[in-house]
Amino acid sequence: MRVAAKINLNLRVGERRADGYHAVRTEMQSVALFDVVRLAEGDSHLSASGFPVPLGPDNLAWKAVAVMAEAAGRPPRVRIRLQKRIPPGAGLGGGSADAAGVLLALRELWRLPWDDGRLEAIAGGLGSDVPFFIRGGRALATGRGEVLEPLQPLAPDPVVIVKPPFEVSTRDAYRWFDELGAGEGDNDLEQAVFAHHPELAAAKAALRDAGALRALMSGSGSAVYGIMPSPGRARAMAHAFLARGWWAAATRLLP
After folding, report:
1. What secondary structure letter does DSSP report for 143?
2. Neighbours of 44 (CB within 10 A)
């Protein structure tokens, strides 16, 4: 099963809630950059290729098996194989997408008559943005990110996504935001993250200079994207960042 990455078209961060999470308001949009999740019945095992990820109980894919098995009243004996093409620590939701993919695949494997709404409820216990990946597309997310309102699909415009050779943890990004006390622009986390990683601000400026119709850090970073005027321009910018030693992909919005 293929599971798509996401970008944040905007991100507003509100007050810290009683549960420790910040209230957020963000538009999330799927992009044509995919991990592949494969499941089979058998002794519990998790393997992965591509980007390195934890293979123990901290992996959201493992946790997804556990919560799905408990809800279905089945033993959590499943073999998982991940093909990782979405870079971790990038604000693109790769781990959350994998968890959602496990939920969707287990529904098929176990032939469960559950609708997407039930899967989204289970997904909400795994992470704030996991429910989005059950359906994908474009949606407004509020609360801590788990309350979804589907939005009108966008055209499949070309996008280039670039990521430096380091990650930004969500915890650090929000801690820096709290220390700063405010945000500005279309992503409230940008100002705080850029203060610690000015090369991300430079990447955003480079995308704008190359004609990006919109350039923004995705989520808490470290990936920055640009919606480009043509696929050729997206590919050219991807090549330019690859030459710098960054990860980069020319792709498109996924309605």
Report:
1. T
2. 13
The residues pairing with 253 across neighbouring beta strands, listed in sequence order, are 31
What residues contact 137, with CB distance under 8 A and at least 6 apart? 29, 30, 150, 151, 153, 254, 255
CA distance 156 to 139: 15
129 is annotated as an active-site residue: yes
What's the pLDDT score for residue 20?
75
For residue 21, what pLDDT is reported?
A: 81
- Residues 240 and 124: their CA atoms lie apart, in Å, by 38
Please say whether the beta carbons of 227 and 200 come within 8 A: no
Please say whether the beta carbons of 97 and 35 come within 8 A.
Answer: yes
The predicted-structure confidence for 64-121, as pLDDT tens digits, reads as follows 999 999 999 999 999 999 999 999 999 999 999 999 999 999 999 999 999 999 999 9
Task: Report how far apart the first and last C-alpha atoms of the chain are (Å, whole number).
Answer: 18
Q: Name all domains of the chain by residue range, CATH numbers in brackets.
A: 2-150 (3.30.230.10), 158-252 (3.30.70.890)
Which of 35, 63, 98, 129 is labelled catalytic?
Answer: 129
What's the mean per-residue pLDDT of the chain?
A: 95
- The phi, psi pair for 41, rounded to 5°, reads -65, 145
The rounded distance, in Å, linking the Cα atoms of 22 and 119 is: 24
Measuring CA to CA, how many Å separate 128 from each of 42, 59, 63, 131, 161?
Answer: 29, 15, 14, 7, 22
Report pTM.
Answer: 0.94
Calpha distance 54→46 (Å, rounded): 9
Query: Residue 166 carries which DSSP code?
Result: S
